Structure prediction request, 92 residues.
Amino acid sequence: MRTRNSARLLIINSLDQVLLFKFSHRHDALAGKTYWATPGGEVEPRETFEQGAIRELKEETGIYVDNVGASLAEHTFEMTLPSGEVVVARER
Prediction:
């Protein structure tokens, strides 16, 4: 089973609101599942978690930052992707 490294970002605005995306799967391996997630995604080969976080934030929100700050947590777990592939997800 492959390991999928992902960078996740905790974005909090001046009103202490947290940015979350709602995912509702209808036509893939996760059909019928709905969940909320922070911005982020898979870290590309030869990319650090920090570089991946900056890229994902820009791709998903249009927000560009030079620095994402310190890593707050790391979580490793088994996860099924929308494609049906089961991976060891390592999120930071």
Notes: The mean pLDDT is 95. The chain has one domain: 3-91. The longest strand covers residues 3-8. The domain at 3-91 is CATH 3.90.79.10 (Nucleoside Triphosphate Pyrophosphohydrolase).
